[in-house]
Fold:
Amino acid sequence: MEFVINEWYLDWHRPDAKAEEHAKARAFLQWLQNSEHRIVLLRESPFTRKLNDYRRKYNYHLMTQIYLKLFFTQIFHDFNNCRILDIPPELPDEIEEKLKRPLENPLKNIESDRYLFQSAEATEEKIIVTSDDKLIGHFEEISRFQLWSVDEFMSKFAIK
Structure:
């Protein structure tokens, strides 16, 4: 199975993240390293930019640096664990319309989540794992994509 994740994974490795988030991110990494599933990432996306930014920004914090380096070397650069897309696929009109329609919170820029749908469009399963409950709610009536919360995903795959 292929699926897409957003920046929760990177944010949960930050030194100021909660201990529970650290534990979940590390359990997810270990699961991904040992599973037959893989993530799909768009090469030029907010996720990859943040990955590179955090690798520089947190080079002073040993645990953050170790886990980001593990992700970068053992997931990001391993075709068995990660498929990188260079060219984003076109999205269906209904998704384009939803991306342009604002959420209840006018401060939330939903257009910045476009890369998630482009990445998921390139998969058979079209699963997006996100910590953004508002994004999940905004797309709940669209059956083309499955938006799962991090806890829902971890529960379905017994990731502890």
Observations:
- The chain is about 50% helix and 15% strand.
- The two ends are 19 Å apart (CA to CA).
- Residues 2-156 form a domain with the Rossmann fold fold (CATH 3.40.50).
- The chain has one domain: 2-156.
